[in-house]
Design brief:
The chain has 352 residues and is of the alpha/beta class. The chain has helices spanning 37-45, 52-68, 75-90, 97-112, 118-148, 176-183, 200-211, 224-229, 255-265, 296-299, 341-348, and strands at 8-11, 16-20, 31-34, 156-159, 189-193, 215-219, 235-238, 242-244, 249-252, 269-272, 278-279, 319-322, 329-332, 335-337. The strands form three sheets. It has a seven-stranded mixed beta sheet, with helices on both faces. Strands 11-8-9-12 form a four-stranded mixed beta sheet, covered by helices on one side. Helix 2 (52-68) runs parallel beside helix 4, helix 2 (52-68) runs antiparallel to helix 5 (118-148) and helix 3 (75-90) runs antiparallel to helix 4. The chain is globular, with a radius of gyration of 20 Å. It starts with 7 loop residues before the first strand and ends with a helix. It binds 5-S-methyl-1-O-phosphono-5-thio-D-ribulose. The site of 5-S-methyl-1-O-phosphono-5-thio-D-ribulose has 18 residues, from helix 2 and strand 9.
């Protein structure tokens, strides 16, 4: 299957990173044309590009564009400029490991090319950044196929946040099984949690599923329990921003509550995770840095007028960690991992 949409692309001739501006959806489908490091940093921070794989792809292109603009003539000077861009982009968001993974992948490629000319190093970095995108396309298709095997005609899934086409190279992780199943002629319906406070479910998941012709029902986050209790949900599929070695999984705030409910109602809970999102350096979820964002996202954003007294305290963690014991399976490009996750994750990473 072809990518459904192209949320992140590079125009190398004009040195522009082209991003679907996800903050304008579903009202407007508009693309940003970014040339400066500051605008790329801001696009990641403000969630104009978002979703762990898409952030990784954007960071790969971002660090390439930063290095491309360098006037260095030696490896040492070039590496200094590269590192400056890498460190800067790495400071944009803390939780999605794909950001750091992509930047490290670019750094390793540069290290391999260090004996070449600066021009050759630039072209190797271009190749590597393109490869990050191409690899993600394959990974998402593969996750889609493994996930679709779990779906029978007529099933309904529930998802949280947006782990769809626009959060990746263009096919999705948690929504990829739905797209593959649809392609196989299965009729799959989706309940989308609206996903407070930034409404990725209402604005993004609902938009891309409806555009793709998938039967979609939008619910508020606090309605997940009733739809599960009423027997409307056969399985939960969510994405992730970082998976620890023991299977604990960070994903959009509210995901852990969905997992707890799923366990209560006996509904399988699957995490769709490219291997680039598994952080074997994190032993457990306690090692995962949870991003905290401004309280105005809760009180003001998306409202015409502020919805809370200006003096109220706010707490706005952007992610939470789902305990590995609540996860039925982790769907990767290498297959569906089952508990014991420390063992199954170690085996796909060939850890002793
Ligand atoms: O803050 P966001 O919108 O970047 O959070 C995104 C998520 O939590 C997604 O579920 C995750 O990154 C997986 S995207 C394939």
């Amino acid at each position: 299957m072809k990518a459904l949409i192209e949320p992140v692309r590079l125009n190398d001739e004009t040195s522009e990173l082209i991003l679907l501006d996800q903050t304008l959806l579903p009202g407007k489908v508009e693309y940003l044309h970014l040339t400066t490091q500051e605008s790329i940093w801001e696009a990641i921070y403000k969630l104009q590009v978002r979703g762990a794989p898409a952030i990784g792809i954007a960071a790969g292109y971002g660090v390439y564009l930063g290095a491309k603009a360098s006037n260095a003539t030696t490896y040492e000077e070039f590496k200094k400029d590269f590192d400056k861009s890498k460190d800067y982009l790495a400071s944009s968001r803390p939780t999605a490991v794909n950001l750091f993974w992509a930047l490290e992948r670019m750094a390793s490629r540069l290290e391999k090319e260090k004996s070449k000319t600066v021009l050759e190093m630039k072209s190797a970095l271009l190749e590597e950044s393109n490869q990050i995108l191409l690899d993600d396309e394959e990974v998402c298709q593969s996750i889609g196929k493994f996930g679709a095997d779990l779906l029978k005609d007529g099933m309904t899934i529930l998802t949280h946040c947006n782990a769809g086409a626009i959060a990746t190279s263009g096919f999705g992780t948690a929504l990829a099984p739905v797209y593959v199943a649809k392609d196989q002629g299965k009729n799959i319906s989706v309940y989308a949690d609206e996903t407070r406070p930034l409404l990725q479910g209402a604005r993004l998941t609902a938009w891309e599923l409806v555009e793709s012709g998938v039967d979609t029902t939008l619910i508020c986050d606090n309605m997940a329990s009733i739809v599960m209790k009423e027997g409307k949900i056969d399985a939960i599929f969510v994405g992730c921003d970082r998976v620890a070695l023991n299977g604990d999984t960070a994903n959009k705030i509210g995901t852990s509550g969905v997992a707890i409910l799923a366990k209560h109602y006996g509904i399988p809970f699957y995490v769709c995770a490219p291997m680039s999102t598994i952080d074997i350096e994190c032993q457990t979820g306690a090692d995962i840095h949870i991003e905290e964002r401004p309280g105005t996202e809760i009180t003001d954003m998306w409202y015409e007028t502020p919805m809370a007294p200006s003096k109220v305290n706010t707490y706005n963690p952007a992610f939470d960690v789902t305990d590995h014991e609540l996860i039925t399976g982790i769907i990767t490009e290498k297959g569906i991992l089952r508990p014991n996750y420390k063992e199954s994750i170690s085996s796909i990473f060939d850890l002793a």
